[in-house]
Design brief:
With 327 residues, this protein is an alpha/beta fold. The chain has 13 helices and 11 strands.
């Protein structure tokens, strides 16, 4: 079990990452390649990722260079997921490149003790080896993550809207209580169970950065070093992939008064009940319309407990900006 101990000050310093963290997504996606767990949730990605790696000639690099550094185990080096990764791929890779040599050696030794690392891992303290690592990480990202950036951004936006909605109605503690089935808020402690080891992290006024992750599956991840700025990578909710029906209604039909009202309600995130109130219809009718909008690719729906939160997709936002009746 992992436990974060909060002070009253820490509750005022809970943040949610505003952008996908490029290096954490690399790490979590490499974990996905090492297991069949959750394959259904990543079916479209799996269909293209291995072929993309093969076309780019990256299969040997991933197998012999990247996977040993990112084992799906209780530990992998913290310097591979620097906080700068939240500013984009370039910033994250630069941070990896300039990591102090002594820290690289320390974390390479920790990896060896945890899972048995190849002898060459210690050589990452050398600048030229880290340059090779940065090149490999960049090539991997461009091959298998960059093509899915829009989807990842869309899902992260929906998650931030969900958090904003919860904060408004239930405050920070309500948000912490709703992060996922393996994360439990028992004031003043946030517990993650199961977790590979028992660890207590005392925040002591540093707050906590929550990083929603597309590729993280089921089990949240934290940095191993309690002295680093505290973060918690946790999985976004996944729904089975669906394909729009060939006979989905055309977009101009979707801009009828009821659906247009529901679509506008989703601009800042809306539950089915809230959308129904905005459109002046019953929740059952609103549920029908949100299903049509979702099948047309205009909204995305995220279920949490007994509530479904609807948010716009990029297509839905573009349609509202340009379509008839736009605000």
């Amino acid at each position: 079990m992992l436990r974060f101990h909060f002070t009253p000050e820490d509750l005022t310093k809970v943040r949610v990452a505003t952008e996908p963290h490029a290096l954490w997504e690399i790490a979590a996606s490499l974990h996905r390649l090492q297991t069949r767990e959750g394959r259904w949730a990543y079916a479209p990605w799996f269909r293209t990722a291995r072929a993309a790696l093969r076309r780019a000639g990256l299969e040997p690099t991933v197998k012999t260079f990247l996977l040993p550094l990112f084992p799906r185990a209780s530990y992998f080096p913290d310097f591979l997921t620097p906080p700068e990764g939240a500013q984009g791929l370039d910033a994250g890779l630069e941070a990896v490149l300039v990591t102090p040599d002594e820290r690289v050696v320390k974390e390479a030794d920790a990896l060896n003790r945890a899972v048995g690392a190849p002898a060459w891992v210690r050589r990452l303290a050398e600048r030229d080896m880290r340059e090779q690592l940065v090149c490999a990480l960049r090539a991997y990202y461009c091959a298998v993550i960059a093509p899915h950036e829009e989807c990842i951004q869309e899902r992260l936006h929906a998650e931030r809207v969900r958090h904003a909605h919860t904060l408004f109605h239930a405050g920070t503690e309500g948000m912490l209580a709703g992060l996922g089935p393996t994360i439990h808020w028992r004031s003043p402690v946030l517990e993650i169970d199961p977790y590979p080891e028992h660890r207590d992290v005392h925040l002591r006024g540093r707050g906590l950065l929550l990083i929603p992750s597309h590729f993280c599956w089921h089990a949240p991840i934290a940095l191993a070093d309690p002295g680093l700025p505290p973060v918690l990578l946790y999985p976004l909710h996944h729904l089975p992939t669906t394909t729009p029906h060939a006979d989905s209604p055309p977009l101009n039909v979707l801009l009828g008064p009821t659906r247009a009202a529901i679509l506008r309600a989703c601009t800042t995130g809306s539950t089915t009940t809230e959308a129904a109130h905005r459109a002046g219809v019953t929740p059952t009718t609103a549920s029908h319309h949100t299903a049509v909008l979702r099948d047309a690719g205009l909204i995305t729906s995220l279920r949490h407990a007994n509530t479904v939160l609807h948010t716009l997709t990029p297509l839905g936002a573009a349609l509202l900006r340009s379509g008839p009746g736009a605000d």
